[in-house]
Structures are given as C-alpha cells and as structure tokens.
Specification:
alpha/beta, Hypothetical Protein Tm841, Chain: A,domain 3, four-stranded mixed sheet, Rossmann fold
C-alpha cells in the first residue's frame, strides 16, 4: 500500500510540544498528558498553556506531578481516525514516561495492524521533527518500510542538546537519569545534556552563570555533527527563555546557513515540570 497524507494519520502526545499540529495538518492529532497541582488536574496545552503554567510553577508550594494519557484517551483518538487506512502513533521515550505503554494497550484494542507505534526514544521537538519528517515522506507517497527506516535513522543519527538552569526539577520528577552524577555540583557551571537510549545523559559542563558558554558548546557540537547542506532540519524548544532562543537561532544559521529551522516552540506544562524554567535546547536531523 502506498501511504500518503490522505490515507495516513499521525498521532503525537503533548510532550512533543506541538500543540497546533492539528490546526496546521489535517491528518495529525495530539493526545494530551496530564499535570496536577494538588487536587487540580489539567490536560497539557488544552487546559493549561505554558505561560500560565510557569507563572503558577514559580509560586507553587509543591512541585506539580504529571501522568500519562489513559489507554482510553488513545483509543478514542484512534477510533476517531477510522477513515485513515494507517495511523502512526509517535511518543515520548518509554524510559521517561508510560505514555507509549498506554498507546500500546489502545492499539491492541483496535485489534489490527492499522495503528503502528513508534517509541521515539526522545522528547519535545525530537518527536515533532520525526512527525514532520514522516509527513515529507507521505507527501510524495511512501511505505511502512520507509517510515520505519526514517524512525530508526532519527534514533541513531539525530542530535539533541539542552541546558537547564537547575537539575532540581529533573531530580524531583525522577527523570534525571545519568545526569544525577552532576546533582549538587552546578555552582557557576551549566550542564550540557542530551537524551541517549531514552534517558537524560550529561555530556559536559561549562563554567559561567550565563548561557553564553553553553551556547558556544552547542555550536561546537552542532558543527562537529553536521554539514552545511540541504536536508538539515532543526527544532528549538525552551521554557521562558526567549532571549536564548533568539541567540540559538542566530547561532544555528551562522554555523550552518542552509539549515531549515522547522519548529520553535515552548515546553509545555508536562515537559516543563521536569525541565524547569530557563531550559533551552535544540534537535537536529540531516536527511
């Protein structure tokens, strides 16, 4: 079967930080995760936008908690897409969230192979950029084999770098992974982090309270891993760090002028709960 944007749908969860995906593309859907402040629970992006979330986070007496969508949330989405012959469902790393597990249960309930699941082993724009890459394949007509090969390539050959103002939020949420080795040692240094094999991993740390040294390290690693050629795609995400985003955009385009910056987005409430305000990072993939 030839897969196209007319017969194939793409489902992502809200940790992709792509809330307007459905508005931009008729064959895309977003299933929200949940964030709770005490007894109050909100659907990510749907009932709690990033700006409101970070304002509340700063004044909250306790750290909010997050939870995955239910299998029924996914099942309702898959059933609403019954007019599509194929559904690709792309999700946050299964080592960071139970979201992929919920989607798997829902896909089994559908009862055929119409719904195909992909553990992106990533988060935020790493998920969104794969979704956009699949759409590019669908535009010209593609196959399950090509889509699965693209997903594998994304896992193996993409790059993701980010820095946080503090590791406190990653530690509180239990998502700190191997970066826990840096906990308590960040006085006057910035950690450079990535996600490898689905978990947070420290790469290095740079001295200085500001982000400039971190951005310089971003550029060094970005240049080492890429070439300035067509097919270099970048996505940028941040948690109330607009100035750093402008600097990062300029850095990327100066280092690799042929880069296409496909997406610039804010981290939503769920990812922001674990990353914390001030986080900034970017994802790249070279076709």
């Amino acid at each position: 079967m030839t897969l196209t944007n007319e017969n194939t749908a793409i489902v992502i969860d809200s940790t992709a930080d792509f809330p307007d995906a459905q508005e931009r593309f008729s064959n895309m859907r977003v299933v929200p995760l949940y964030v709770s402040f005490g007894a109050e629970t909100f659907r990510d992006y749907v009932e709690l936008d990033p700006h409101t979330f970070y304002a509340r986070l700063r004044s909250a007496s306790a750290t909010p908690t997050t939870s995955q969508p239910t299998p029924q949330d996914f099942l309702a989405t898959y059933e609403a897409l019954s007019g599509y012959e194929r559904v690709y469902s792309l999700h946050i790393s299964s080592r960071l969230s139970g979201t992929h597990g919920s989607a798997t249960l829902a896909a089994r309930e559908v009862g055929d192979d119409r719904v195909r699941l992909i553990d992106t082993e990533s988060v935020s724009v790493g998920i969104s950029m794969l979704a956009l890459g699949i759409r590019r394949l669908l535009e010209r007509g593609t196959s399950d084999t090509e889509i699965e090969a693209l997903a594998a390539s994304h896992r193996q050959r993409s790059g993701l770098l980010f820095t946080v103002d503090t590791l406190e939020f990653l530690a509180r949420g239990g998502r700190i992974g191997r970066a826990k080795a840096l906990a308590g040692s960040l006085l006057n240094v910035k950690p450079i982090l990535t996600i490898s094999d689905g978990e947070v991993v420290p790469l290095t740390r740079v001295r200085g309270r500001g982000r400039q040294k971190a951005l310089q390290e971003f550029r060094r690693r970005f240049e080492a891993a890429t070439t300035d050629a067509d097919g270099l795609h970048v996505g940028i995400a941040h948690a109330e760090a607009d100035e750093a985003v402008a600097q990062l955009q300029a850095l990327v385009l100066e280092a690799r002028p042929q880069t296409e910056i496909e997406l610039v987005t804010s981290l939503g409430a769920v990812v922001g709960t674990h990353a914390g305000p001030g986080t900034v990072g970017f994802f790249w993939f070279q076709d």
